[in-house]
Amino acid sequence: MRTQALSHDQNSCDGAESIKMHQIQNTATNNQLPYQDPRHCSDSEFVDDDGRSPKRAGNVRSACVSLTTAIVASPKYMFLPGNVARLGWVAGPAGVIFFSLLTYCTSALPCACYPSPEVPAKRNHTYMDAIRSNLDGAKYFKICLVIQYLNLLAAASEYTVFAALMMMHVARDIKYGLSINCRNAADACYVNPMPYFMAFAVAQIILFQIPKFPQLRMSLSILCLMMFLLYSGIGLGLAIAKVAGVHGVYYADHLALTDSNNTMTRAQKIMKIVQAVGEIALAYDLSAVLIEIMDTVKSPPSEAETMKKATRVSLILTTFVSMLHGCLLYAAFGNNVSPVFLLHGFYKSYWLLNMIATAAIVLQFAGGYQIYLLPILAMVEETLAKRFPDNELITKDIKIPTGCRHFGPYKLNLFRLVWRTLFVITTTALSMFLPIYLDLLKLFQILAFWPMAVYFPVEMYIVQKEIPKWSKRWICLQILSVGSLIGTIATAAASSVSIGSNYYNPFKPKYF
C-alpha cells in the first residue's frame, strides 16, 4: 500500500509538472505576437507569408481611400483655398497641379524600397524599416527618428488647434442663430476657445484607450472621407450661390488675405507667395504614411503596381476638388477669402449650413488624429516592450470584467494609459498657451519636408536600384533633390519672418 501511495504521489507530481510545462509553452507561444500556431488557424486564412497577422487584404480601392484621407484629413489641406487666393487665377491652379504631379513622381521612390535589398528580400513595414535596411549607418536612422517624432508633435498640435477652433465656431453659429443680440453686434458672438481644446483632448484620451481601435482604421478613413464630401459640398454650394448673386450670403470682410490696397512692400508680397507655394507642397506630402498603407496591400498583383494606381486616382480626385475649392471661393470672395476653408465664413440665413459643415470638419479631424497618431504611439509602446520585456508596467494587461460575453474583459495597460494621456495633455496645453510652440513646429515641418519627402527616398531608391553615379537617372534624381532643398529653404525663410508677429498676449494667441 505504501509503494502504491508513493507511486500515486510521483504520478501526481509528474502530471502537475507536465501541466505546468504545457502552460509555460502556451504562454511563450502567445507572447510571440507575429507568430500564430498553425494548428489553431489556417496558414493562409489569418497569417501572412512572413508570419505577421492579420493577413494583408488591401486592394486599389482601400489604398485609394487611405491615401485620399491622408491628404484631405490633414489640417494643411484647409489652407488650399487661401493659398490659391494668394497666387491668383493662373499661378494658383498651376501650383496645385505641379505639386500633385511632383507627389505622384516622388511617391514611386519609397514604394520601390518596400522590399529590402538583402537576399532573400523581406518587406519593410514602416518608413523607419526602409531607412534601416537601405541606408547604411545609424546616423540616418537617428535623424529620421527625431524628425518623425517632432512631426508627431506638430501633427497633434495642428489637429488639436483646428478641431478646437472649429468647435468654437459651431458654438458661435448656434449662439448666432438663437440670439438676437448676437445678430446685431459682432462682439456679442465671442466664444472662448479654451474649453473646446479641453473637450477635444478628453475625447482623444478616451478614444486612445478603446481596445482593437487600430483595426477600425479603414472605417475611420471612410468616415473622414464622407465628412470631407459633406462640408466640401456645402462650401462649394454656398460659393456658387455667392457668385450667382444670391442675397443673404454673408462673408466677414475684415479678414483680407491679400493686399487689395497695395500697402505691402514688394518683398512682403514675394514672401507671401513663397509661403503659399510651400504650404501647397506640404498639403500633398504623403511620405509619412505611404509605406504603412502599402503594407496593408495584398499581393499579387505587386504592391508597387497597386500603389501606383491608387496614388494616381487619389491625386486626381484631390487635385480636382482642391482647384474647385480655391477657384470658386476666390471667385466668390476675391481677396477676402478666409485663409482656412469655411472659417469666418457664411452667416445670416446660411448659419445652419455653416454649422453643419463645421461640425463635419470637427469629426474629420477627430478621426484623422487617431489615424495619423495611433500607429506611431503604438510603435513606441512595442519598442519599449521589446526592450524591457520583464517590466510589468509596460507589458502587463489588467483584465477588468465588463459583464458582457461578446466583448469579454477589458484589458487595461497602465503604461499605455499614462503615456497616451500625458502625450495628449502636453500637446494640448502647449497648443493652448504658447503660440511660439506652434510657429516653431510649423517651421520645423517645412524644414523636414526635404529630407523626409525627397532626400531619403532618393537615396534609398539609388541604393535599391544600384544606380551608378553620373548616369542620367542619377543626375535627374540629384536635380530633384537639390531643387526641393532650395524650395524648402526659401519657404522656411519666408515663414520665419512672421514668427513673433502675433505675440501680443502669450495666453491668448491669434492662430490665424
UniProtKB/TrEMBL annotation:
Entry protein name: Amino acid transporter transmembrane domain-containing protein
GO molecular function: symporter activity
Organism: Carya illinoinensis (Pecan)
Annotated function: Carrier protein involved in proton-driven auxin influx. Mediates the formation of auxin gradient from developing leaves (site of auxin biosynthesis) to tips by contributing to the loading of auxin in vascular tissues and facilitating acropetal (base to tip) auxin transport within inner tissues of the root apex, and basipetal (tip to base) auxin transport within outer tissues of the root apex. May be involved in lateral roots and nodules formation.
Subcellular location: Endomembrane system
Domain of life (superkingdom): Eukaryota
PANTHER family: OS05G0424000 PROTEIN-RELATED
Membrane-topology descriptor: Multi-pass membrane protein
InterPro entries linked: AA_transpt_TM (IPR013057)
Recorded coiled-coil stretches: none
Main location as per UniProt: membrane
Assigned keywords, A-Z: Amino-acid transport, Auxin signaling pathway, Membrane, Symport, Transmembrane, Transmembrane helix, Transport
